[in-house]
């Protein structure tokens, strides 16, 4: 039996440095003015060369490191993370371990390396070669690229970028801590490469992958890195295809190889970080390993209440500062959590963020337009660094040492709790008074008959998902109006003219159900956030969504209500121009929440019902204005699904409930549509049925309508609009192609339930592609209609 003393890192090797007292798990890398986005896009467009791009990126890394040191992270103890990426951290891990799919093999140099141009090609595809698939990073709005692993993937250390970036900072005087996606998470997030035998699991390649991680750790140690951070967020979810005991076995093997077989000084000390939830039964496994430190998410997760065997040689990094949301922390309460952590018998306790800060904007000081009261309640990345530094001082030196800071934080929390608008009696009374009947419409069959009678649509009605191309002119008008160069009247006239143009175009093309085209919307969430009470929007609060794409999430700070109609006059205007039905267009409560920073002071379900009621009022007004079809988009419904299966039922209850609350106030002859951007329904198929929408449009073209038999098999008997062409690519589908997909569709869906539409909105497309694509869609629908 090993005693704690033998196990302790210091006892093994006095050279192993202590983990820093305070750290953050990662920092935004896009730049506070989106410098990286601009540089990368200029390079893609051929306006700059790779040297310029690399120089800008190096500048950005230098500024970031210097900023973190300024904010109080010491320059010499590995508390500053080295977490830069040109595109995505999972792609970085893939290219570092040589996991480049076969179809991109021609991009590799003779030495088997991928240059920056090749790296971007894997991320974005080229010609007929599709890029790696993109999917959501746990419960954030960040998207990572999915590595493709097969039995033949030849793992090898194929990049020294982590080492180079470590050296670069060291030369500037800062000892950083390289951050890399850990091996278990890397394989769990990968998918089987094309051509892999059925049932192949990427995790089966662990033994081949680990030597490459070992090589990387050796190289980092040789460069002088005292610590490395391996991110293992996949440990906090049980929503994986791999059974939990296999995950735990892989974890045991991985860190026996990387932390026991490989020893200091051949490797840096290892921090395993587990953001986004509880480690659960993975914590004892890590405690029992020779990993020197483990970072816990104590915002989403909770600390164990009893000492964990084996922890005596492990440093715990208490992730008490929320890396995933923007609220200023109640430092006294956070300090209590850290003090309790000290009772668990760990070798030491340090202070950290719950997740990387890449999910929040840079700096509240960059928001001159925010109400100063609200600004005082917020902490973006830079403020969070200060919070961890303060907490670390408090933990080491006692509360007295940070008395003033604790007081200021408590004051901010108190002022937020009592501020006007945070809790609005009229809003709370309304949600409290809701009854079951408020969530239910008349039976679907009855509605269908009433809607058929009212709308008189042909079989296979054609429509679009809502947005039409956002042209340069539209963007220019919006920018000019925002700057004050274009009056509100002139701006609105321009939008009305655009709507008229889009309506006329749809009539010409021959679509059956028209839309107004969403010209007036800067964004499908921010547009509503600007019009609802309880939200604020930022000027520079950009957060990376994927690659060079950023979003500016709104901040949901108070009780939500609708001071005035939001979309009615646009819909009314469009409807006044045509005899055909115009579909009203709204964003659903779950999507509004998913793409905003949400409150941490009320249950999500309460906010969802408040937004549901605000939308219900809007829908009532649309109906009164003569709009017969109203679409409520919920592309984020599946995105917010909790990472632990045990939490999913409660989530689906409030999320589905907020949608039905929004939509159940209409007459039976008003048709409710919803749109979901994806086709992997699997785990939420029941929830989609429970939305009780009359028509659901989904993505289906890329999978060639694969979803439809499943949908029919599960008893789904509502209207459905499987997308008949992929709007993510500029390609114009031929009429034959669309006809073939529709012929497939009528085989598995009752043609009376079938709608014909593209996969998603057209806002990112140009008119050159949109017009012929829609013409082909209409012609294909007419052709298949003939055969019914
Ligand atoms: N109605 C929106 C549009 O057409 C839907 C966008 C989405 O699904 N993300 O743009
Ligand atoms: Zn969509």
UniProtKB/TrEMBL annotation:
InterPro entries: Cbl-indep_Met_Synth_N, Cobalamin-indep_Met_synthase, Met_Synth_C/arc, UROD/MetE-like_sf. The keyword Nucleus does not apply. Binds 1 zinc ion per subunit. Binds 2 Zn(2+) ions per subunit. Pathway: Amino-acid biosynthesis; L-methionine biosynthesis via de novo pathway; L-methionine from L-homocysteine (MetE route): step 1/1. It catalyses: 5-methyltetrahydropteroyltri-L-glutamate + L-homocysteine = tetrahydropteroyltri-L-glutamate + L-methionine. The active site is at 728 (proton donor). The keyword Repeat applies. 5-methyltetrahydropteroyltri-L-glutamate binds at residues 34-37, 136, 141, 549-550, 595, 639. Residues 22-342 form the Cobalamin-independent methionine synthase MetE N-terminal domain. GO terms for molecular function: 5-methyltetrahydropteroyltriglutamate-homocysteine S-methyltransferase activity; zinc ion binding. Signal peptide: none annotated. HAMAP family: Meth_synth. Belongs to the vitamin-B12 independent methionine synthase family. This is 5-methyltetrahydropteroyltriglutamate--homocysteine methyltransferase. It comes from Sanguibacter suaedae.
């Amino acid at each position: 039996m090993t005693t704690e003393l033998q196990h302790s890192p210091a006892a093994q090797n006095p050279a192993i440095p202590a983990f820093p007292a305070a750290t953050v798990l990662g920092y935004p890398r896009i730049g506070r003015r989106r410098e990286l986005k601009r540089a990368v896009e200029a390079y893609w467009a051929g306006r700059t060369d790779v040297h310029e791009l690399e120089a800008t990126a190096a500048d950005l890394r230098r500024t970031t490191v210097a900023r973190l040191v300024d904010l109080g992270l010491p320059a010499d103890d590995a508390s500053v993370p080295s977490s830069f990426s040109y595109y995505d951290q999972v792609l970085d891990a893939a290219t570092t371990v040589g996991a480049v799919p076969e179809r991109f093999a021609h991009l590799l140099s003779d030495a088997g390396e991928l240059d920056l141009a090749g790296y971007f090609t894997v991320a974005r595809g080229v010609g007929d070669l599709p890029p790696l698939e993109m999917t959501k990073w746990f419960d954030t709005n960040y998207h990572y690229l999915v590595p493709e692993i097969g039995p033949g993937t030849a793992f090898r250390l194929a990049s020294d970028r982590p080492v180079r970036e470590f050296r670069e900072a060291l030369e500037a005087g800062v000892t950083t801590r390289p951050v890399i996606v850990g091996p278990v998470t890397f394989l769990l997030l990968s998918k089987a490469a094309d051509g892999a035998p059925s049932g192949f699991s990427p995790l089966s390649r662990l033994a081949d992958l680990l030597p490459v991680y070992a090589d990387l750790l050796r190289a980092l140690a040789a460069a002088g890195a005292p610590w490395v951070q391996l991110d293992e967020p996949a440990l906090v979810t049980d929503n994986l295809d791999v059974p939990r005991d296999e995950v735990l076995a892989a974890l045991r093997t991985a860190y026996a190889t990387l932390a026991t077989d490989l020893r200091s000084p051949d490797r840096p000390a290892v921090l395993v970080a587990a953001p986004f939830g509880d480690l659960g039964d993975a914590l004892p496994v890590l405690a029992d390993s020779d990993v020197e430190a483990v970072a816990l998410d104590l915002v989403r997760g909770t600390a164990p209440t009893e000492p964990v065997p084996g922890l005596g040689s492990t440093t715990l990094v208490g992730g008490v500062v929320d890396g995933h949301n923007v609220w200023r922390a109640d430092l006294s309460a956070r300090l209590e959590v850290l003090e309790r952590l000290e009772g668990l018998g760990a070798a030491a306790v340090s202070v950290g963020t719950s997740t990387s800060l890449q999910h929040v904007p840079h700096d509240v000081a960059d928001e001159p337009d925010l109400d100063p009261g609200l600004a005082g309640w917020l902490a973006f990345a830079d403020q969070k660094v200060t919070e961890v530094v303060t907490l670390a001082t408090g933990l080491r030196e006692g509360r007295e040492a940070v008395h003033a800071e604790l007081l200021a934080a408590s004051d901010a929390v108190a002022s937020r709790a009592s501020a006007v608008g945070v809790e609005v009696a009229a809003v709370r009374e309304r949600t409290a008074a809701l009854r079951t009947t408020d969530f239910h419409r008349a039976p679907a069959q009855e509605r269908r008959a009433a809607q058929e009678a009212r709308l008189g649509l042909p079989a296979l009605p054609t429509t679009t998902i809502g947005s039409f191309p956002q042209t340069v002119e539209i963007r220019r008008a919006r920018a000019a109006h925002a700057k004050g160069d274009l009056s509100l009247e002139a701006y609105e006239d321009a939008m009305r003219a655009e709507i008229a143009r889009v309506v006329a175009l749809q009539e010409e093309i021959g679509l059956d159900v028209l839309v107004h085209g969403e010209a007036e919307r800067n964004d499908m969430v921010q547009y509503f956030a600007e019009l609802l009470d309880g939200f604020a929007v930022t000027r520079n609060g950009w957060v990376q969504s994927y690659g060079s794409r950023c979003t500016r999430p709104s901040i949901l700070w108070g009780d939500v209500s609708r001071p005035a109609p939001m979309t009615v006059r646009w819909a009314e205007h469009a409807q006044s121009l045509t005899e055909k039905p115009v579909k009203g267009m709204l964003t659903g409560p779950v999507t509004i929440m998913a793409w905003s920073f949400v409150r941490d002071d009320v249950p999500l379900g309460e906010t969802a019902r408040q937004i549901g009621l605000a939308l219900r009022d809007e829908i009532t007004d649309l109906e009164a204005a003569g709009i017969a079809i109203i679409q409520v988009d919920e592309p984020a419904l599946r995105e917010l699904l909790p990472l632990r299966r045990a939490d999913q039922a409660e989530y689906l209850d409030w999320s589905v409930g907020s949608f039905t609350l929004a939509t159940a106030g209409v007459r039976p002859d008003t048709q409710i549509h919803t749109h979901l951007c994806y086709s992997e329904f699997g785990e939420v198929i029941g929830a989609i049925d429970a939305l009780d929408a009359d028509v659901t449009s989904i993505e289906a073209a890329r999978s060639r309508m694969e979803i439809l038999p499943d949908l029919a098999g599960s008893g789904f008997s509502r209207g459905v609009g499987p997308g008949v062409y992929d709007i993510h690519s500029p390609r114009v589908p031929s009429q034959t192609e669309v006809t073939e997909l529709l012929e497939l569709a009528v085989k598995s869906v009752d043609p009376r339930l079938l709608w014909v539409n593209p996969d998603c909105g057209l806002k990112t497309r140009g008119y050159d592609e949109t017009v012929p694509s829609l013409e082909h869609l209409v012609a294909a629908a007419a052709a298949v209609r003939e055969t019914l």
